[in-house]
Amino acid sequence: MSDQPERTVGPAVGAASLPLVIATMLRPQGNTGVHTHIQQLLRYLAAATDATTMLSTPFDWRWPLYVPVYGVRYVLAPVSGSADVRWYRHWHEVFLRGALRTQLADLGDCIIYAQDAPSARAALATRRDHGQQVVLAVHFRISQADEWADKGRIPRYGRVFRNIRELERQVIPQVDRLVYVSRWARESLAGWLPEAAAVPSAVIGNFVAPWSGRPSRERVGDLVTIGSLEPVKNHRYLLQVLAEAKRAGRPLTLDVFGDGPLRDDLQQRARSLGVAEQVRLRGFRPDLRDVLSGYRAYVHASYSESSSLAIMEAMEAGLPIVAAGIGPIPELFDEGVEGRFWPLDDPARAAAVLRGLLDDEPSRRKAARAARERFERDFDANVIGPRLWAFLQDSKS
Predict the structure, then answer these.
(1) Could you give the angle at which helices 33-48 and 309-316 cross, rounded to 10 degrees?
(2) Domain limits at 271?
(3) What is the pLDDT of residues 14-40, one digit of tens each?
(4) Are 333 and 374 in contact (CB under 8 A)?
(5) What are phi and psi of 246, to 5 degrees?
(6) Which of 97, 110, 105 is nearest to 56 (CA)?
(7) Rounded mean pLDDT, 91-105
(8) CA 185 to CA 141: how far, in whole Å?
(9) In this structure, what are the phi and psi dihedrals at residue 156, rounded to the nearest 5 degrees?
(10) What's the gap between Cα 369 and its chain centre?
């Protein structure tokens, strides 16, 4: 863990702000946590500053050419996950370098806010000089190699895994600054890459703007969760908890928002556990925050996160949180205040925790109020956005 003290940063910079270039390997639009981070930052800057901002992606350069190059993945993916990941990372970085080289050539001093290590490497390779500073956001859990391994796309500690770690080992010490989205992310990175501690950094959590839509006034269901349908999100465990609650005489409904490869598996699992009528897999919904307040609690079973925007959105909607007290989760809410911690290895005990919250309505409402207050204090874009913007602009950090 770094001995470097956390910096206290001030309000957003005004007219003298350096231009900001956000660099990412992802498509411009999407529903991942990184997409949300980018969208929320751009929205905050547009509303609160006169900053010049631009988004740079691999899809901004030579668009007719990237179609066949990226299309090779459709052939590789069914045959070899490792080859698919290697191809994806290599060619997306090649095209991102082209996009950045074009954007940075005439820009002058600026901040390049990279959202992953390949984007940071592309920025370091194409910046004109050190007046174009590279700041890397540490969104990943431990390493991006671990994320690909968790998805089952590459073997853990295999060749591609080791190559990704080596890229991070080379690039991270070279960037000008690091932004960690949680203290846990900082400690996890330092656990295998102690050199990261020498890079000026700040822990500035994710944030979301208060929802401007009209919240639901009708009860939609008991429980809700948000997340892509992939193994690391651990939705199968939620179904086991529902089955245990039903066995104890407390059937509960669960709505799952998100898409992914495990949809059919989860439907089959729900049927085998006898909870299919209680579970709705509702896919991706852009206006989800309109309906969040219509549930009684937000449940979370992921066993690996760097932060959780979904939990923040649920707290903004005034929902108490039930999640495991692991990784960065204890940084988001406190046991017995905004929600409850439950185990991820004992569905019966988890169901008892859930029943204890839902069957005590005064306590549930108290936790719901505390969750909303915690959001306003710690996760509101109007509170955290200025801190991130000031750190990005602080060339002396």
Answers:
(1) 60
(2) 223-378
(3) 446 999 999 999 999 888 889 999 999
(4) yes
(5) -65, -40
(6) 97
(7) 96
(8) 7
(9) -65, 130
(10) 24
